[in-house]
Specification:
Oligomer: single chain
Helix content: 10-25%
Number of strands: 8
CATH architecture: Beta Barrel
Shape: globular
Length: 174
């Protein structure tokens, strides 16, 4: 039985305005709080995230999922390294699971810059949904209780779809 996914239907290309508004809001929020208000994450901190939102680069009027909701956790090992795992609804309207590490050794403009390296699954056109290694650039900014991450996802043939993603995270305090 063939299961229909909305990604198979042609539709309007994703709209820029909502994504630009959110990105602008995050940028203004960061500037308003100021670099001095940023508090570096300490070893042992745990962050929780509800997934992310994405702007997929227009491609043949394919209807990608831009609302990549899910649940993830990040454990800070050091100032530059944290471990992360979770799940989300991916661009192809399927569930993905991921596990890996953030390495953000550079600090510039109040943002930590680096990469995420790990394993991800659930993309139907990539190894039939199986797990594969993943590497992508990231920028993150963290305050006392909240943080934001920006990721540029690669476009790989017709298997993975390029996007700019924004994630908000909350520092969990048991």
């Amino acid at each position: 039985m063939h299961r229909f996914h909305p990604s198979q239907a042609a539709g309007p290309a994703p709209r820029w305005p909502w994504f630009l508004k959110l990105l602008s809001l995050c940028w203004v929020w960061g500037l308003a709080l100021g670099a001095g208000a940023q508090s570096p994450s300490a070893a042992g901190d745990v962050w929780i995230n509800p997934g992310f939102i994405s702007y997929h680069f227009p491609k043949h009027a394919v209807n990608f999922n831009n609302d990549n909701t899910g649940l993830g956790a990040e454990w800070r090992q050091s100032e530059a390294v944290s471990w992360s795992a979770g799940f989300f609804h991916n661009s192809d309207w399927a569930r993905s699971h991921y596990a890996g590490a953030y390495w953000t050794p550079w600090l510039a403009g109040g943002w930590r810059w680096g990469a995420f390296v790990g394993v991800i699954d659930g993309y139907p056109h990539m190894l039939s949904g199986g797990a594969f290694p993943f590497l992508t650039p990231v920028a993150a900014r963290e305050w006392h209780s909240w943080g934001v991450g920006v990721t540029l996802l690669p476009d790989y043939e017709n298997r993975l779809h390029g996007a700019l993603s924004v994630q908000v995270k909350y520092k969990w305090k048991p």
